[in-house]
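G., before I forget:
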Amino acid sequence: MLQEILGIGLIFVLTVLLALPLGRYIAKVYLGQPTWLDFMSPLENFIYKVCRINPKKEMTWQENLAALLTINFVWFFWMMFILMNQGWLPLNPDGNPSMSADLAFNTAVSFLVNCNLQHYSGETGVTYFSQLAGLMFMQFVTAGTGMAAAAMVFKAMKEHQTSQLGNFYSYFLKSCTRILLPVALVSAVILVFNGTPMNWEGKANIVTVQGDSVQVSRGPAAAMIAIKQAGTNGGGYFGVNSAHPLENPNYLTNIVENILIILIPIAFVFALGFYLNRKKLAWMIFGVMTLGFFLLLSVSVYFEMQGNPAITKMNINQSLGSMEGKEIRFGAAASAFWGITTTTTSNGSVNAMHDSMTPLSGAMQLIDMMINALYGGVGVGFLNFYIFIIIAVFISGLMVGRTPEFLGKKIEAKEMKIATIIALLHTFLILSFTALSSYVFTQDPSVGWLNNPGFHGFSEMLYEYTSSSANNGSGFEGLGDNTPFWNITCGIVLIMSRYLPIIGPIAIAGILANKKYIPESAGTLKTDTATFGFMVFAVIFIIAALSFFPALALGPLAEFFSLR
Amino acid sequence: MKTHIVPALLMTATLFVLLVVIYPLIVWGFAQFAPEKGQGETVSVNGKVVGFAKVGQKFTEDKYFWSRPSAVEYNAASSGGSNKGPSNSDYLAQVQARIDTFLVHNPTIPKSAIPAELVTASGSGLDPDLSPQGAEVQVARIAKIRNLPEDKVNELVKTHTQGPLLGLFGPSKVNILALNLALDNL
Amino acid sequence: MKRSQSTSLFQGGMAKTALLESFIKLNPRVMFRNPVMFAVEIGTLVMLLVCLQIAVGGAASQGSLVYNVIIFSVLLLTLLFANFAEALAEARGKAQADSLRKTREETPAKVIRTLGRLKVNELQIIPSSQLEKGDVFVCEAGDIIPTDGEIIEGLATIDESAITGESAPVIREAGGDKSSVTGGTKVLSDHIKVKVTTQPGESFLDKMIALVEGASRQKTPNEIALTILLAGFTLIFVIVCVTLKPFADYSHTYIPVSAFIALFVCLIPTTIGGLLSAIGIAGMDRSLRANVITKSGKAVETAGDIDTLLLDKTGTITIGNRKATNFWPTTGISEERFTASALFSSLADETPEGKSIIELGQQKGGKLPTMPQNAEMITFTAETRSSGINLPPNIRIRKGAQDSIRMMVERAGNIFPDDTAQKVREIATNGGTPLVVSENEKVLGVIELQDVIKPGIQERFERLRKMGVKTVMVTGDNPLTAKYIATVAGVDDFIAEAKPEDKMNYIKAEQANGKLVAMMGDGTNDAPALAQADVGVAMNSGTQAAKEAGNMVDLDNDPTKLIEIVEIGKQLLMTRGTLTTFSIANDVAKYFAIVPALFMTSIPALQALNIMHLASPESAILSAVIFNAIIIPLLIPLALKGVTYKPIGASALLRRNLLIYGLGGLIVPFIGIKLIDLIVGSWL
């Protein structure tokens, strides 16, 4: 018991201790200050030269967005090509087939948007070539995209008045070479030394001690696992992600992988503080995120360690907590901790089956993704939080008798319009698509999607779209989601929920950067105070609660109360 | 868009070389220095590979420590949990059935001593471990079938129990494959 | 001093007009301007259709007719309450403006018309409403000035108490900065020719009334931004309610239309939505009550944001002119002798300073001498820079600036005493003005003149500082004096020896730093600065140019009015912010009332969410809807009076308002809904 709590405490403390220096480092990278990785410069300059890019050419927010969207467009076709032709492409020792068009669409989009929702299983659905050239490649570059987007917003927040938000290609390439690649490399080596496979062989055939014939999947897993965690991509090399004993062999690798999930998102918050030289602001944001994180975490850890009430009624020993869908080597606490960290960031890889967790754990994971801004995905998590800040600034600015301003820039109708649309989008996508699937299911329950009846079945559908809209990728995996209906609808949700929340904050930041800077006075609302932090916190939770209360009531809450 | 398409294509190509070719090769290079060389540690009996040390396998015979129920029957060609929700009545009936089966095979054990892990499926379906209690409740049955003193079996469980990391962090566990092979070697 | 201001919110007549207006405003084309209330109107219409359908027996599943009619009525009431708030605010604003306007309506005007080929000027008497811009009219003692205009000929004393409440008559004359007259004021003496400066119906007052009235009222930028946010919330709840239908179907729960509509209306921010326009109008109304005419709603809003305030020293920080505060005789001269000479020196001095010397001399026991028969008055000239009196037989008393007296004294071969020179320096560094008095070219001593700082002004500046407003004093004094007064009065900065263009430059410099600047002015040479300032308040007594340039006109000509205006602006924004917070926080309780009510029957487990233990699903829904409706009229007084502004720093203010309106907004509806449920539940 105590050791399990200590274990998750250790993960969090280590993460923060690592995130602080990493945050300072990230700020330096984007500011163009010297760092110890400057020996990469010749390589980067070579890439710029080959790509005919002038990294010093500053661009407006519109030009930067155009660059970002164009390269993402290219990647989409690259992914579609690989996935639909993997059968004959190289590195396919197990002879896995090419994907169907709808599954390829879903998978391509899912990895393109840094979500990594998987409607296939890693062992059978993709080849080693697809794992590396398709999925792992996306795990690097989409994380880099999100980080570049955040870097542009950082730049916009720093300048007193400018129309130029830096150069997308430069931010993007540096994110990959200076941040993601080193972090991934170090972690991959740790994993390999702990027993995670990194080879090119196909499945091993084995006759077990009891005489059963089984196969064991393997392949170049370590390289991919490192970046899928660090880039908040999620998913997994294997079907059950990090619950798999080869993907996550022991408690130490679990600590490493779990730290990787939240490391860069938290480091980004600190990076903001170092970048703007407003450390208090960074601590405020970190405080708000951490408060929300701990609230959700404590509920989930408590109920997982308590165990399933229905099994408690069977009078067996549930002292280890709810163990359905969990691994012995991690235990209930570390599984709940992972569950909250993976949903709080847009990671979505799992080390235990969320579908089998107790109802309120499911609710906490859902709320985490419905908020989608507590730490959040690499780069984009901050962008989502930025929207909430804008709304909070607007309301609290009014409450102190000034037309609202944030970091010296007036928030007016245009910015509010964008912020409102972005805040609305998430609610719209989750609720309307869950409604659509509920409708289809009610009309014809024989579609056979749901692995569980009743409230929990509803939660499965709600979870799938929430995860898609949060670009998370985890799932209540009982849902039979490899059908054209789910592949296509989730694909649509994924695209919309990825690009609009990148475009929106960059547009707001770009417009604000263009405005005249207003110096602070005693009447100005300070945004780096606990009071304002509380306001942001209230805005985040109230918006989430108001949008999703009925849905949560009909899913996890109803299940929770009926289990009591 | 037009002005960005050429850099986008070129950037994709160059990063492909860096991230898809060079990076995995570096990791693979490091793997050659790792204890398992990136292959995954295998366990052999009489020169024949009987399993991967870290991947669980099915033990249902009474003479072995049972492993946990698995949704994929421990075939690591794939992996998966049951994904049953906590209130699913079919699932709860299944759990009840497992409890009953356990009690039939372990008549000396009171129901309240059965650890939940033995009647619930793991997440991966490949869980290689049990908790120490999970092994201990099976000691009586194994000792009886194998005609061993319970103390000796208990001792074996103890030596195969891995404590928390650094003695402080995380749960204790027993690797069932190693334990059962040790049992066979007694 | 000021006209009594009605503070009662619901005056009989006004309430009646407002009531009528509430119904007229139900017109969808009017409602459309307010997305939140428009959504309620649609909901109400749907409920009406449901009621009709039940009445003709078509919809048995929708529940009883009585229940549905009650829900419909409560929704209609919600709409009417919101409309009533707006109408009441309009009525109050209009009443205020009307009382100002009434005085000038249908006053006979003696207009000069050029008639016939011979171009003979003739005086015609026409009603003031027919006066056109450019017409010239004549006013004599006893006449009421028919409309706003500018004096082109003559000078008159005018009683402006009808507009300003100030009883002391003022002098207005052609040319210069005091040429403007206001309709409704009364000429007390003399004869003036006035040129009409505004078209009928286009005076500032008319414009203000139009701002208050619905038709031409434009939303301010901040109001638009808030409306967008509220529309966003409304859309969220459209999504929530629409998607609830398939969710409920999945859970095998039947939800009647009335419950959907009730949930929707309760959740959308009707409280702030219903009161939003009333808050804006009330802001303008409050400024009108402070006797300030605003030319746009935006100006009031901007006032709340002011960073820098330019204030004229004279009249604002100090009372009028300098006053003699001390006599300092030189060694060897008695106090009595000095006082007597000082009195003589100022006997014929009509300037305020001169008068104050007489006053001080009398206080010190000197007797006011009578003017000897053949005394000769020496008036101040730029050359001598001194004034005084020559008394028979041969006494020459002079008073003047130190250097001019020194020159005179030393030219006569006398010595300028050291102790007086010392005193002169002392007075100057203390911000005073020294006037040296001499008799027959011998120095007698020095009179100290000091500015008198208005009582209470330091506190007002302190208050401004806490609001984050920087105060800047504008004065023609030399930097030394200016600095002294600035320190004593507690202003943050000053512009000394100010020329009109200095003001302009200062404003531009502040604005270049992103600050919002307010200033007050009256002269024509203030006009460019007034136009440049973000909030320019022209005094009503000022020139037409100044009034055109500014975006507010102060009827009281009170230079400290800016402080009040800033607070009104802040109040306006705060009221919007706090009621938005309150409105949204209310939703939590409404959810806990309605959601369990919807599902309690089909999913008994959700009874656990009924934490208020409301009697029945019907009673719960009804209670929430009723609470939602009556909270609007309950908050009308707050919306109209505005949330009190306290200059305690932004963070403290946010904390305070979050506690009152955020936490309050969370708790109040729990109590309110439970209470209503106790009543409704026993009655259902």
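DSSP finds 18 helices and four strands in chain A. The radius of gyration of chain A is 23 Å.

More on Monday.
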